[in-house]
Amino acid sequence: MDQPxxxxxxHIEGMDCANCASGITKSLQKNGMENVHVDFATGEAVxxxxxxxxLQSAIKGIQSLGYKVIDSKLKExxxxxxxxxxxxxxxxxxxxxxxxxSHMIFxxxxxxxxxxxxxxxxxxxxxxxxxxxxxxxxGSVKIGIPNMDVLxxxxxxxxxxxxxxxxYLYDAHETHNYLFFETTATIITLVLLGNVLEHRSVKxxxxxxxxxSALNVNTAKIxxxxxxxxxxxxxxxxxxxxxxxxxxxxxxxIPVDGEIISGxxxxxxxxxxxESMPSEKTIADKVxxxxxxxxxxxxxxxxxxxxxxxxxxxxxxxxxxxxxKPNIQxxxxxxxxxxxxxxxxISILTFCISYFAFDITLKDAMMRSIAVLVISCPCAMGLATxxxxxxxxxxxxxxxxxxxxxxxxxxxxQIKHIIFDKTGTLTTGEFKIKNIVCYNSTEQEVKEILFQLxxxxxxPIAKSIVKELQxxxxxxxxxxxxxxxxxxxxxxxxxxxxxxxxSYKIAKELTKDESHNVYVIKNNALIATVDLEDEIKANVxxxxxxxxxxxxxSTLLSGDSFAKCDAFAKKVGIDKVFAEQSPEQKLTAVExxxxxxxxxxxxxxINDAPALAKARVGISLGNATQVAIQSAQIxxxxxxxxxxxxxxxxxxxxxxxxxxxxxxxAFFYNVVAIPIAALGFLNPMFGALAMAFSDVIxxxxxxxxKTKKLK
Length: 711
What we know:
Elements: E1 6-13, H1 18-30, E2 34-39, E3 44-49, H2 55-64, E4 68-70, H3 72-78, H4 84-102, H5 115-142, H6 148-169, H7 172-175, H8 181-205, H9 207-213, E5 219-226, E6 229-236, E7 245-248, E8 257-268, H10 270-273, E9 279-281, E10 286-287, E11 292-304, H11 310-323, H12 328-357, H13 362-375, H14 378-398, E12 401-403, H15 406-413, E13 417-420, E14 427-438, H16 443-454, H17 460-468, E15 478-484, E16 488-493, E17 498-502, E18 518-522, E19 525-536, H18 540-549, E20 553-557, H19 562-572, E21 576-578, H20 583-596, E22 599-603, H21 609-614, E23 617-621, H22 625-631, E24 634-636, H23 643-678, H24 684-704
Parallel strand pairs: 13-20, 13-22, 20-21, 22-23, 23-24
Antiparallel strand pairs: 1-3, 1-4, 2-3, 5-6, 5-7, 7-11, 8-9, 8-10, 8-11, 12-24, 14-19, 15-16, 16-17, 17-18, 18-19
Helix pairs in contact: 4-5, 4-8, 5-6, 5-8, 6-8, 6-13, 8-24, 9-14, 11-14, 12-13, 12-14, 12-23, 13-23, 13-24, 14-23, 14-24, 15-23, 16-17, 18-23, 23-24
């Protein structure tokens, strides 16, 4: 039975411009595919299919346009091998070199200048041109979206046909003036060269996906029983079942997500979180597939395997993010869609004006017309945005920042105001003892009481106190410890002294001061009060300052008391405070601030999900990965360090700058080059060379973003 709405990814060879992608998109939609996204930069078509039986007709539709569909297995096998476009280029190159240099020898008697010899040398190159550009050009015209191959096909064919006619219409002394076989061969070969360079350059923009995919292991060590004895055997990564017990040793990559059941180790999680320091892991700690065990060894229980692992979901998120188009790309797409018909019109107009209005020779008029065709480059416009987006999102992913799409990059680059939740976002959610005030007791005694009694409570404050006082050496022996929810914990020592530790509710008959977090009572007398404060995450103050340097204002939005929020905001350098806010009030505040200036919100991705959705850009931390991925546009995988927030903004800003630079170059190139070609100042062969390198310049500028210093 067919599975409804299956997500399909096809790998397609032969796409070389945005119009190629548009043509394939239209073909797939015509065959009933939904949510179609075709990216000519990566050579992938992603879509949903209702009935898998229609997949073959969709593939045939793509192939009828002149493109080749290859399966992922074949793509992996051919990775690193010479591509079909490279093979065609190297095949045509010798013929073109001979034709090009023979043309420089002006002797009509020279054997390589004989018409039939030149035709023989040109024919293999022209045949490759028909295979590479002709079928694609015809298919694109048939569906009403002419692509760049139309321009190349018409330009090279015009020179070829003109040369054939010249062979038969003119005598031996005049024929050489009408032979442009070398022009045909050079145009085809140089455009193939451009495609080869483009193909290799685009690979450089997609290395983030490859780097992340390389983290996956091929095999794992599974623990089992054989004839009643424990044995460890190797198992394929794809065959690991949920619940399997795996052995991981020093130097191994952790195969899947799971929980440590024995042993301890230091784990390098830098590739996924950007965190440079190894993380210490022991029993009951969670580990992530793809991270590296630096020291120690352990056994783990597999919890998420295959496509459900954190690494797989991150790879999928980055892939989808690189497909999402920013709004700025719409301009390039609109121009690319009408570009080819406009260039064809300019080419025809160039010929007509040159030949009929200015009495320029037929040969020169035709050369000008061909030069207009081959100098034009819609590819550069099509490549301007996706290549920059791929590099920007890839760079962010390597730094532990997941950005959902080019539109998010564009939005975040324009943000002028960021709202912060407090607990769990700017603080760790754990509490530190700020102050202990003792009455008729010692601080050591109070700490002993707190440490022993709070062990019997599951309240977050109790857990934090126990963790902070774990090095305490108790001398008091307690019994009959009992927790009352909402009040605290009570116990009795060996001398029958009664103790209570809890909130103000247990001490309201003993004091009117309700400003403290914890009260300690012995034999119905208040012996101590304890003040706590949230532990601030690393680099919060530095991150707020870095954002200020980038012109971004900050606001604290919290349900906590105004006094606490105000003191906290002053401590870390936040500009404005909204305190004592209910979830509904938070939503209203976010909506109001967002209407006044482009605003992002940073939250922990759990209780802040509605507010994150209301902001222009929602930013969540990775400790609630599933909720974060659903509710936010940016996920910071460094849970306890906000330094990546300022870096995310810089990456977004510089990606947008790169896109604008690329679009400027693409537009400027065509605006300047087409008139030069039309006026006869550009030979078609040099036009083809310039066109080939215009793509490489745009891609090169995008690749520069990989290592560009951000400030």
